[in-house]
Amino acid sequence: MKNKMKWLWVVATVVYLVPFIVFGSEVGNRFVDFNLEDPQSKKHSQTDMEGKITVVILQSRYTLDAAVACKKHLKELIQGNQKVQMISIMDLRRRPSFVPKLVLKKKISGQDPTSKEIPFLLDWEGDVTKLLGGDESKCMVLIVDPGLKIVYKQKYKKAVVDSEIKPLLAELSQRQK
């Protein structure tokens, strides 16, 4: 019985470690697969991000003002760079249950002037946001490389954009042909 337990432990350890050995420690660093809609009911998925550098803003109803400021600032930064795109994902898991989704879509779109130019995806249950480590009390910025690996993830701070995000986007753009 002890021998079987040892073998079971060895097999479990090997099964756990093989992905790290084969793919490196970045195995958990891949952007999640998702299917979300925008306020106009257009569907968006992970395949929309493939082959491009993507700036992802994670926000919630509670961080709307910070997210609008963040998106405006980052939009200026990436303007003219054809290799970079931006999307925003809004965590709506704590939305008022009595408000119909259609009404909430219109209200959110009306409050966010960037929603017409930057794809604004609605995460109704908060599943995508949770998987990405988002927090409904913080506006987060993620940079995803063309291979869909998350290469940057931080809470939005205006000062950090020029010192960290701008050089990272320049470096990723240089690497991409």
Number of strands: 7
Number of domains: 2
Low-confidence stretches: 12-28
Order of helices and strands: HEEEHEHEHEEH
State the secondary-structure class: alpha/beta
Output the CATH class name of the largest domain: Alpha Beta
Our count of helices gives 5
In the CATH hierarchy, what is the architecture of the largest domain at level 2? 3-Layer(aba) Sandwich
Q: What does the average pLDDT come to?
A: 84
The strands making up the biggest β-sheet line up spatially as 5-4-3-6-7
Helix content: 40-55%
Main beta-sheet strand count, sense and barrel state: 5 strands, mixed
Give the end-to-end Cα distance, rounded to a whole number of Å. Answer: 58 Å
The rounded Rg comes to 19 Å
Overview of this protein structure:
The protein has 177 residues and is of the alpha/beta class. It has two domains: 1-27, no CATH class; 31-175, 3-Layer(aba) Sandwich (Glutaredoxin), CATH 3.40.30. It contains five helices and seven strands; from the N terminus they run H-E-E-E-H-E-H-E-H-E-E-H. The protein has helices spanning 2-23, 64-78, 101-111, 127-131, 158-175; strands at residues 35-37, 43-45, 53-60, 84-91, 120-123, 140-144, 150-155. Residues 12-28 have low confidence and may be disordered.
Can you describe this structure in just a few lines?
The protein is 40% helix and 21% strand. The protein has 177 residues and is of the alpha/beta class.
Features:
five-stranded mixed beta sheet; Glutaredoxin; single chain; alpha/beta; 177 residues; 2 domains
